[in-house]
Each structure stands twice: as structure tokens, then as C-alpha cells.
Amino acid sequence: MSDAEQNEPPQATGYECIQGYLKTLDGSPGVYRMLDAQARVLYVGKARNLRARVSNYARPGNHTGRIARMILDTHSMMFLTTKTETEALLLEQNLIKQLKPKYNVLLRDDKSFPNILVSYEHEYAQIKKHRGAKKEKGNYYGPFASAGAVNHTLNQLQRVFQLRDCSDATFESRTRPCLQYQIKRCTAPCVGKISHKDYAQSVQDAERYLQGRTTDLQERLATEMQDASAEMEFERAAVLRDRIKALTHVQSTQGINPRGVSEADVIALHLEKGQACVQVFFIRANQNWGNRDFYPRVGVDIEAAEVLEAFIGQFYDSKEPPKQLLLSHPLENPDVMAEALTEKNGRKVEILVPQRGEKAELVEGAARNARESLARKMSESATQAKLLRGVAEAFDLKAPPQRIEVYDNSHIQGTNAVGGMIVAGAEGFMKNAYRKFNIKDTSITPGDDFGMMKEVLARRFKRLLKEDPDRKNGQWPDLLLIDGGAGQVSAVAEIMREWGVQDIPMVGVAKGVDRDHGKEEFYRIGKPAFALQRNDPVLYFIQRLRDEAHRFAIGTHRAKRAKAVGATPLDDVPGVGATRKRALLAHFGSAKAVARANLVDLKTVDGVSDALAETIYDFFHEGQRDS
What we know:
With about 625 residues, the chain is α+β, with helices and mostly antiparallel strands. The protein has 20 helices and 19 strands. The chain has helices at about 15-20, 50-60, 65-75, 85-100, 145-160, 170-175, 180, 195-210, 215-230, 235-250, 305-315, 335-345, 355-395, 450-465, 485-500, 535-565, 580-590, 590-595, 600-605, 610-620, and strands spanning about 30-35, 40-45, 75-80, 115-120, 125-130, 140, 265-270, 275-285, 285-295, 325, 350, 405-410, 415-425, 430, 435-440, 480-485, 505-510, 520-525, 525-530.
């Protein structure tokens, strides 16, 4: 890839600005960026021929309203040439995800998907849910559409194959079978209820199931059951009979399991009134491993091909695609996209728009789900818009708020104190915008909710002023909701005065008489407290916001407390990681015993070198060595 960036734009804007670049461009493939007056990226696009593509923007007429607005906003452009159009496509999608341009189709929800891991870190393999980097030794199966889909499959696997899901530490500490054994979800290898050979066979059978080889599996189990019966091993025959019965039950309740599609993502798009829903079904090992809906940011006058191409490019930027993508609409350049995915992942990826047969039926099912999901979302959005108008009316706001931030604190007698911020807007809860704040100010009296709230808001507005001083990125709230009454509101108002952001409306939400849910009172600076009618939908909406903030703050506090419970002074010793920490605790029995140990004893611990033993001893004894 060769650099060919032009950073000195002509003085003209719009069509004239774009025309000024044509004389500097040739027919190379590459990526172009359109920038506004503040040099913010408006749009990122790719081209097989940069000069030809840019010349289309330089001629007025035949542009959709969205593209025409983009051209008028353009004050400069940047270009980067590539060797191939495939390389340009990959670069384009990377830049879109990084820069989030205003006029591009943008995938807003890009979370990772869970997998099932058969872990071979231990002699007796463990089966469990896994999300994130695939660093652990074992075999990974997925992706699954959701944690629920993974849990459902894990329950099926445990019903049939009875594999352990406990941690290695729990496994090693067992002296008798746990409840999982009692309800026939585990064969209790931890206490020798099954031989290593038989357990390994169960693991192998479970992996055959996850690979879609269920026919071979059932045939082998049936043969083994007959052999066991013939040899009068009736107990073993009964176990195999129960396994076959459970496997048959699982297969009969799975729903859609395509016979002719072993590995594919089924991707269907539905566009309506400037909104889009993309439904993705994950087909692996001839099994349906769940589906997920996405709502990319689009415009009123956008074409299906552009939406799907942008979605696929961004969706698989950090995910491995399957062998086939089955689409509801054709792409403009399917060969380029297939080549890009193939090149990136090192195996062939095929893109199809099936017209008949089982594959077409799968796409139609996904399209129906996309259509129904978008209808539900549009209905919910209409309800949400009505509620936001009601909030504006109830609290005398100039306009319905598009971003409401709700704050709450959680602690136990001041310990492990945290603050939580949740965000809601036109599309409901914006969970990717939630934030947690570990209370850092040691001068705050334990349990001082006012002090904690002041610290949280100070840190929040300090960051906003630093990252978005012009309030143009949509990160500033239109309304603050504080869990508390007049005192909390006054504390927050003081912070807002200090940071010069007094123009943001703020409301305190406090439980009313007898702290009764439904008698909430609302507090604002310089105005009397008031309440809403019990049956007012706005009241229910505010209660949901307040309860969500409370749930988030308590969850964050519990996680912090649980982490603190497992912490030891060894965590702060330089050079002592998880492995050496376990070795030290196993050798001495407790962190306190490690702290009291002499240098000679520390040197006898497996994995602890003489130098590390001296570091540990010095840490606890301030450099005073035993003679």
C-alpha cells in the first residue's frame, strides 16, 4: 500500500472543492475521505478507480438527498491508494469503525459472541462457556448468538454426556460428588465415579455432537448398547440406553436444523422509513446456534446493497466468517467482498443469494425475523419518543431529552464504594454508554453519599470538557437524574457551577412518604418539590431509569467487593503472579504465613527463585534480612 495523501485542500467547498482534486488523481484503487470545515470525517469510501469515483461526486445531479448533503458539507478530501480493490475494501471498513463518519452506514452493536470451549488444561476435560481471545488449550465451538443460546446447548450436552463444568480448583477440592452428579448432569470424575477412559470417550462423543456428527454417534451408541446387553453388562447398557434417549429428545426439540447447510451465516436485511434491521442466524455443524438482530445507522434514501456491504465488512472485521454467507439481497461487488474475507481469514468464503431450496427458505425465515424485529423496534421507539416528550413536559425542558444520564452510588458502610452512571435515549437504554466510578478520594467520610456524588460528577464533567468541549459528539446529557433529594441536588449543582455547566437540567428523584414506591418526589434547584400522579407513564419511566441505575451500581459494587475478598497482600509483591501466588499459598497455607516466613523457607517453594524469595521477604520486612 502506498501513501498518497493530499492534506492541503482547495479553498472552494462542495462540488467545486471535489472538482479541484480530480487533476491530482489517477485510476488507482484506494480509499477517500470527505471532511467538513473542522476537518472531521464525513464519509469514508473505497474505489476501484479513485478518479472515476470522485468525478461522480464532482457533477451536480443524480445524487440522493443524503449524498447531496454530504457533498455540500465537504470542505476537503484525503486519499490513500492501495494495490488492489480488495485491500481498499478492508482499509475502508477499518476506517469506518475507527472514525464513525456521519454519512456512512455504521454498525452500532459490535460485541463479541460466546463460544463453547472443551478445555484440555486438565486431565479431565472441562466444558464451559467462553468469550474473548482463544488462549486456553482446547477446542472451541461457535459462535453462538447469545449467552442464552450457549447455556441452552451446554444444558443439552450435560443432559446427554454428563461432563464436568466446575473449575479445576473446585475439581481438586471435592471429596464427595456434588449436586450435578445427583441430578445426572455429571459423572463425578472428581471422586473416581468414572474411569479416565470412559470419561474421555464421553468428551469425544460431546465433540462429535458439536461437530454435527450425530448420526454416526447414535449408531455407535446403539451398537455399544447391544454389545453390552449381549455380554450381560446390563448397568452399562442402561447408561447407553439413557444417553441415546436423551440425545433423541435433544434433537427433536432443537427446531430448525438444516440438512444441506453445515456452516453458514444467514444474513437478511429489512429497510423501512429510514431504519434498518439485519438479522443474522448462525448455522454450525448443521445446527441452528441462535440468531441476533442488529440495527445499523442508515438514511432514508440508502440502498440495500450498500447497507449489507457495510454491515458485512464491519461485522467480520473482528470475527471469523463461516464458509458461506447466505444473503437476502445481492451486493454491488460480491466477488471483492468474498475475496477480502477469504484473504483476511485464510480460507475460502462464499457469498450467495439463494433463490430456491433449503437455503432460500433459511433466508426467508431470517428476512421474516428482520421484518418483525424492526416493526417491534419502531413501535418501541414511538412509545419511547412519547415518554421523552412527557419527561420534557413534566420537568419544563425546552425539548425532549435525547440523552438522559442517571447516577447512583453503592457501598456498605463506606467500603468498596462505587458510583454508577446509566444512559437512556430515544432508543431506550444505551448500555454501551454505562460507566462505573471507583471512589478514589480518601478524604471522603465513609458513607458520605454527597461527597461520593460530587466526586463522580466532577470526574464526569472534567472528562466531557476535555474530550468534547464543543458538545458536538452527542456525549453531553440533556438531563441529569440524581438518586436523592434536596441535599444531593445541591451537591451536584455546586459541582456544575464549578465546571461551568449550569445549563444542563437536573432533577433529584427521592422516595416520598414512607419511602413508598410510587410516591416519588422530584427536586429541582430553585423550585418546589413535586410529585406525579401514580398512574402517569412518565412516573413509571423515571422509576425504571432509577431502578436500572440502582441495579447497575449495586452490581458494580458486588463485583468490586468479591474481587476484594479474593485479594491478598501477595497481589502487590513485584514478580508474584497468579501461578507463584498459588504456589506460595499452597506451601504456607495463607498470605499471613507467607509474610511471616523467613528467607530460607521462601527459597524452598517450587517456582520461587532466590532473587524472588528475597524480593518477597524484603516486601514484608522492609529490607531486614534474617541472618
